[in-house]
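Q: What does the assembly look like in three dimensions?
Context provided by user:
Components: four
Sequences:
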Amino acid sequence: MTDVNLDFTTTRLGECRVRSPMSGSEFIDDDARVLYHCDFKHVAEIMAAGRKPPQFECAGPRSKLYFDPSKLKCGIVTCGGLCPGLNNVIRAIVLSLSHHYGIRTIFGFRYGFEGLAAGYGHEPLELDPERVSDIHQEGGTILGSSRGPQDPADMVDTLERMNVGLLFTIGGDGTLKGASAIAEEIGRRGLKIGVVGVPKTIDNDISYVQQSFGFQTAVSESRRAISSAHAEAQGARNGIGLVKLMGRESGFIAGYATLANSEVNYCLVPEVRFSLAGLLDSLKRRLERRRHAVIVAGEGAGQDLLTATNEKDASGNVKFGDIGLFLKDRITAFFRSEKLDLSLKYIDPSYMIRSMPADPHDSAFCLLLGHNAAHAGMAGFTNMVVGYWKGEFTHVPIPLATSHRKKIDTHGRLWSAVLESTGQPREM
Amino acid sequence: MTDVNLDFTTTRLGECRVRSPMSGSEFIDDDARVLYHCDFKHVAEIMAAGRKPPQFECAGPRSKLYFDPSKLKCGIVTCGGLCPGLNNVIRAIVLSLSHHYGIRTIFGFRYGFEGLAAGYGHEPLELDPERVSDIHQEGGTILGSSRGPQDPADMVDTLERMNVGLLFTIGGDGTLKGASAIAEEIGRRGLKIGVVGVPKTIDNDISYVQQSFGFQTAVSESRRAISSAHAEAQGARNGIGLVKLMGRESGFIAGYATLANSEVNYCLVPEVRFSLAGLLDSLKRRLERRRHAVIVAGEGAGQDLLTATNEKDASGNVKFGDIGLFLKDRITAFFRSEKLDLSLKYIDPSYMIRSMPADPHDSAFCLLLGHNAAHAGMAGFTNMVVGYWKGEFTHVPIPLATSHRKKIDTHGRLWSAVLESTGQPREM
Amino acid sequence: MTDVNLDFTTTRLGECRVRSPMSGSEFIDDDARVLYHCDFKHVAEIMAAGRKPPQFECAGPRSKLYFDPSKLKCGIVTCGGLCPGLNNVIRAIVLSLSHHYGIRTIFGFRYGFEGLAAGYGHEPLELDPERVSDIHQEGGTILGSSRGPQDPADMVDTLERMNVGLLFTIGGDGTLKGASAIAEEIGRRGLKIGVVGVPKTIDNDISYVQQSFGFQTAVSESRRAISSAHAEAQGARNGIGLVKLMGRESGFIAGYATLANSEVNYCLVPEVRFSLAGLLDSLKRRLERRRHAVIVAGEGAGQDLLTATNEKDASGNVKFGDIGLFLKDRITAFFRSEKLDLSLKYIDPSYMIRSMPADPHDSAFCLLLGHNAAHAGMAGFTNMVVGYWKGEFTHVPIPLATSHRKKIDTHGRLWSAVLESTGQPREM
Amino acid sequence: MTDVNLDFTTTRLGECRVRSPMSGSEFIDDDARVLYHCDFKHVAEIMAAGRKPPQFECAGPRSKLYFDPSKLKCGIVTCGGLCPGLNNVIRAIVLSLSHHYGIRTIFGFRYGFEGLAAGYGHEPLELDPERVSDIHQEGGTILGSSRGPQDPADMVDTLERMNVGLLFTIGGDGTLKGASAIAEEIGRRGLKIGVVGVPKTIDNDISYVQQSFGFQTAVSESRRAISSAHAEAQGARNGIGLVKLMGRESGFIAGYATLANSEVNYCLVPEVRFSLAGLLDSLKRRLERRRHAVIVAGEGAGQDLLTATNEKDASGNVKFGDIGLFLKDRITAFFRSEKLDLSLKYIDPSYMIRSMPADPHDSAFCLLLGHNAAHAGMAGFTNMVVGYWKGEFTHVPIPLATSHRKKIDTHGRLWSAVLESTGQPREM
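A: Here is the predicted structure of the complete assembly.
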């Protein structure tokens, strides 16, 4: 019962006194909640212990708003690496602010937090429904992005100077921490500026959020790389197709791609250690038997095997050694030492995946995410992100969402299904 | 609290005494449950009333089996119209029975229930992992299909004669009722034959099942038709693009396709009545303003406007009037009577959608559905289907699954989002 | 030697005295020619008879222009049905006029010839490189289109009033005849206005033009419909998948689609008569043997079997009877009379094909077509279209291009290959 | 008039006395020819000089065959790197040999020339229509492939031992030279074994062959990589997207991909030298102006800038330095030295492109190529390949086809159009 003390209550800027202009809509009650645990045994145990089971606030339009739409200016910023659906989320926020609430001024800050910081001189774009009407058909982000934090004081200065009352930040773990720092600086200054996040993680590794946008498109697009690896592997005697997929801390993309493509023989993820000798031995036996093999590796897999670099990127993430190149070199050397011919083809499709437009599922998902972000912001919720849990859109406090990474449960059904699909040994 | 009395307990053939050969896997406890309601207020109310909240059995492999794999013969049958993923489900069941349990004999009955009935002379295919290894890359079903029931006595005769102990039926509402009739006949004869269903409904309208396979592929594939309708509408003065999508009783495909494609101006679904005059009036005003419009209609929409036919198809479904042709004719006539030029293009992509191969998401989903069907069958569950609820695979008794159709909640967020996306009037 | 007298010499508005601003480019000589016949026997025979073999003028930029770019205004119009690549051609003409020649004013006339006619009040769009930069990613035409001619006098009045010196018409047979009528009216008035066509025929049936834009995209997109028909046919006992493709006078789309998709068993085209009884008999025998069949019919196939309607559409084309519905009805009736079950699925993907964006091949092709149209116009060529012959872009006088329709040679290799691929009888 | 002495006459094994079993087909006359030059000036000049203009033999079925189909055994081998369409060509040869000629025994030699050589022990596959019916839907080659030559004496021993009378080799420049060596060894032994090639070059660089199979699919598939590079470049301040495409000696893929995708700003090909300083200077100015750039480089571009390696691969090709990594390093270093931030993303999609299934155009093209290879072989043509010229299938002697590589004419329209499309300087 480790999660029994979780409290998903979010912060609000103040009382909501403005009547929502959304007519004919179904408003969500402030006290609507969705259970964190849905297995009854767990819930019953918690209740038997006299505790209230943890539960999320439900997202959605409120009948009473904190902000007066006629006076509010908003801003949107996208940070970090590309992810399918960024433009969809920008578009959905702009459409909801404009059409549902009648907001007139929405700034699109350029190139991530740089666009809010002093000294870069990036002029924001002015966003309106016409400007964003078709942007979802392109990958990437029309606002541009950048990695790394900026001084919160500088950024709040910008918000004050431009009279922005509501800021939407679309980004990953680092971005959300930056957004939280902005919210704290706003609090220190006693300002009434809302900060609402939309969590962006192509790896699907943000805690307390069941699925993040772009993840499914990424899994789908991996099919092309895996099919290519399979064709290359089959096209040569002792052919190996090696594909590196995204997944720094969590192997969800590699795992689901394995289930979605039946051609994978080894799926390597950050959550499961393996020994190089064990992998090489298993590979050798498979090639003897089947003459080809397909390996998929999440980028964070096998990091313990690589020499630590200690370098960090602009976002402060530790720079990972490249497991793809490492495996390519080691497998090649091993088979050479065994005097066995080998044809290994290494495919790294990451940039081609993350820059894709959202697929139809993610398009609909981003539309609803963006709407719910706008609804949350207008109702005064702050220092929170819009999440998704058991089929419902939710609110999650940023500090909780960034408290740790979500990982594959290596004793759960997903990982068992991966092992069953590949036929790889549970331990190597 | 209408659902408080729901009981999702399924039937089992008998006690499980055979140790599962699945090694290293994580077995599911027989008493694992997932809550039907996940909003806490609801659950708390039920418990306050001294009741147990309704909950589903969790699917998954059991440590003890009912059947002895070394002696069991299985059969698979696909019925009704095509749906993306049929071959994936067949493949997953075969792979699980073979690889997880070591079953040697699996019959693929041809052309639906005809393949089990007397008098057609269809020889079953013998299925094994090699035969099914690549079938998921093609749409359709390698077994063939047919509509309509056959005599349960005939079919149980076939099962007895061929010594089949476990039958998997993949099909929709009618098929599941047929499967239930088979299970009852088996019961009357005191036989120990399991009947496990995998619910197939491209419309996603089976009760107590959150998402059915093929649905997401269908929504994705509708994009192409809607984009075409949009290009045709924009390419002409007073251009209208009209798309008929699947959805006899429920408008989920039309609704989600509308959210996934931002070009729809009118979304018509079976759940929401509209007046023809209201639609025509709104259309006329839109064309004056924007010169083009895109309409998406689920096939069951507006049936009250059509003359009843009373015909039934081979599956016993009432034959619907064709809302697409009806709207095409009425809209054309109306604009002619108004002396307004019109260019209406009508697109019916249904056969092109339902015959597609499963997309990567549905591929992974079908793999797990098929595995769980095999697990359920081996553990002696019968007269039930494998469902999906709040992210978990579940068991649902067939009589409950076929008790009524799932429909769009017209007061819920999905329909609100559709209205917000199209800008169509809530009432026409 | 029927073609020996062909003369492909085009008309020019006058002498070219303006130096082209295209620097560093390779100009094409005015006397460059490409042979109409490339088989040597033919050429040698003609020369032996003391004749000059027919040959096309080569398209491409000229070093001397007729028009002074600093003073020229241009117009573009798209007419008739949609075709993949329309926006690409518009874009290529605008980019070439702007970037190669420095033209400042380019009108996009709306809704076909209506946009040039009196009384409709359509305001033209102003086109420039920014406006057209991304339009090729969408199907359809940003200018809109319409069918049918307008009064040439009215249209020339518009050109005069707006001071347009060069008009580009993108359209099919009817449009080119309309363009020719405009050119004649211009001649009668002694004006110096150029009229340059880009032939649009998804059917690829314009004479003296080897391949027209959009044709290849159309063939590619037909794959989806044919695969669906195949899945439907295989999914039922005695399943027939019937696909109607474009092709009023010529079966090139149906023929090439048959070669590109190995699942077609009967390919019916306008050029080859067949008897209904012969088809039904062959079908019956095939179903007995194989239990399924796929039929592809060009829309002009079997018109002699249908009752003549004598109706004409707005473009003046005879309205064809619907061979798809006809075959559907007759095949169904025949098998009913033979007391044989049948499951026939009819797919008409025409609107979904013609509204697609151009594929990469057609994108590059349209780019070069549009450039060459701009080059031709600037060099004073008029009453001509840009064609393509033996790998070279050419000029073709409109009267020749519209003199008759190009058809499949039923004694040539294409049709033989179709018969070899389907296995259908040469005569039915 | 450098090409005036070309002689495309091919070798034949002997007189053709067997009547072709192809009934109802249109046979091609042995003296049918297609002109090498189609510009009339050129042809007229040659004829005026009393010479016969160079011309290709036309491919196609002959009424008289060299081989007696009832006694002939055939073999097929695929060599070198993957290319879209390999399986289509295998399939087309098998279908034509079986259905048109009734050949019963067709061996598919495994893993390239290894499958014909001594000492590897690869058992050939037996190919028939059922085995190959669906293989064209997968990329790669079902036969497997390998690089590098084998001893011709060994390989002819194998052909003799297995009684193979007709060998089809599908491969590139090295393979064709190997095939020619086999034909010579056959000649030395006085055997009557035919060797017919189908030229495989994804780079489209085989001489006297206008288009090779897989080329168009490769150009199409490059769109995805270029769009991704564009999204990445636009998503960052000073973003550069760098794509390496195939093209060792010839830049056709890079050039056509540039025309097909309007987002390329620099297209670098082997045929056009550039200075690194010139490129960097132009890039810097572009980033100042537009903040992003997309570069496409054929793999053989800029090899003079790289340190020569002198290494060779198994096919005997000089190992090229990696222009992609070189440019990535140098551009990054340059901007660092200029104290300018830069975000460069490097994409190498080569393996993902060459392993794709053929697109519909290439599918039809491969079908006809394979048919014509079978026709040529049956009619006793040997030491030749099936080519394509001015819309006709042709025969080309292997020594001519491998005499030199086809390259982009840097003074022709293709390269001019590339420069016009990118806006890059003609000289850097």
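Follow-up: The mean pLDDT of chain B is 92.
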